[in-house]
Amino acid sequence: MWYLINSFQEPLPWSVCPLNANRTGFNKECYESTAVNYFWYRKTLNITPDIAESGTLQWWLILCLATCWAIVYLCTIRGIETTGKAIYVTAIFPYLVLTIFLIQGLTLPGATDGLAYLFTPNLNTLKNPRVWLDAATQIFFSLSLAFGGLIAFSSYNLPKNDCEKDAVTVAIVNSMTSLYASIPVFSVLGFKATTAYWDCLDRNIMSIINEFDLPEESIMRQNYTSWISFLNSSHPEKIAGLKLKSCDLQEFLDQSVSGTGLAFIVFTQAIILMPGSQAWAILFFIMLFSLGLSSMFGNIEGVFTPLLELQIVSKSTPKELLSGIICLISFLIALCFTLGSGSYWIDIFDRYAGSVPLLVIAFFEVIGVVYVYKIKRFSKDVKWMTGRKLNLYWQITWRFISPLLLLIVFMAFVALQMLRPPSYTAWNPKYEGFPMKEEKVYPPWVQAICVLLAALPCTCVPLVALFHLIKQKRRSKDTSLVSAEVFSCQGANSNFPHPKE
């Protein structure tokens, strides 16, 4: 964390670039990109220009990864016994930090522009099916649907627990938290966009003042538009020769990203401009770490509990050992993310292993409960638990709306993947459009891995169902054979004379 916070010490490129160096190679990369981008992609990730170039394991990333998993292990060492205590800190602390950021964010210039951008719908964006697919995937992550964590945690509830009330409460709290978190985030992003817009205007104003030898402060941000209109009509050749940049606040607001880019680049660039940037950085990254821990608690519990409850692992196995094995395996798998190409693999796992399988698993969960276990039996179970009958909303949603929506989102994802080959954006200093990222198509072998990541978790559901079906058939067949043998033995015994006869 402290390694990342060092990026807040100085926003100027020359603070992280070699002083006596030609602007070629890595040095060109340093001078042509922003300090935050250079620090993130080169100093932190040491990223390769192509996913096919794996690069070496970065020791500092391995150290951070090992530290994180060690903390996760300590918090889940005895399953729900330790997780339940740690969750109080990891769940409450982010709300505290968000409140602090909310108060600070609303006082920043441009905060209202950011909030207006947040709450003003863009109809053209809403027409894009990719947006709805991303929204559906996000709600799965937000509610931890189909991960198994919620089911694992709920298994510790009392038999007659008001599960309907819990479900509604979780959904409402989740939505309110998302809305509450978006306000400080977009306030800060609005501040960043406004600052970039002002910088763009100031550079244009300086160029005009120098070209026309005007007095300083004759052109201000407030009268910039009128001056440009006047000069365009009176001196169009000179204005065209200056090659002024187009300064549009909306364009700066549109320059938003998601995932690691939002947390470690865009938000970081905004925090740099805030007074006391290092203090805000510490709060921000501790909050992110707490959120990550909370997510991992559910994921670990989603593996830990079924292994014990389904008797895959003996209940006599020490919980400390089982939790340690789960964390160790997870750590070893995650080592691929510490390679020079690790950032590209994180995007692949996020896009394919963390989206399609969730949709498919959730679809099978709904179909399994409603049409295999039967909705009537499930309704009786809920009534026994809560003392209330399921209302019409749940009946219609589970029978028709949820399966249909999941199917539509899945088909939309498949259609989008078929329209164009899977691609990614690479940080390539040799790209002619650098510092913009270069869009590349995944190599065939990477595409095959993408298919496997999406397909393997999905095939587990029908394969396990088939296994249990065959097991049940064999059990019923064995029972029939035993019954037949007993019946035949009874019939044979009836032919023998009774001892008393």
Explained architecture:
The chain is built from 21 helices and two strands. The chain has helices spanning 2-5, 25-32, 35-44, 59-75, 80-106, 111-119, 123-126, 129-143, 149-154, 163-212, 224-234, 236-242, 249-254, 260-272, 277-309, 319-334, 342-353, 356-372, 375-386, 392-419, 444-493, and strands spanning 423-426, 438-441. Helix 10 (163-212) crosses helix 14 (260-272), helix 18 runs antiparallel to helix 20 and helix 18 packs parallel to helix 21. 22% of the residues are buried. Residues 1-14 and 496-501 have low confidence and may be disordered. The chain crosses the membrane at residues 57-75, 87-111, 131-153, 279-300, 321-346, 352-375, 396-419, 445-470.
Largest sheet: 2 strands, antiparallel
Number of separate domains = 3
Structural class, judged by helices and strands?
A: mainly alpha
Question: Fraction of residues in helices?
Answer: over 70%
In angstroms, what is the radius of gyration?
30 Å
- Classify the beta-strand content into a percent band: under 5%
In whole angstroms, the N-to-C terminal distance is 92 Å
Low-confidence stretches: 1-14, 496-501
The ordered H/E elements are: HHHHHHHHHHHHHHHHHHHHEEH
Mean model confidence by pLDDT: 84
Write down how many β-strands occur, each being a DSSP E stretch of 2 or more residues: 2
Strands in their spatial order, largest beta sheet:
1-2
Molecular shape:
elongated
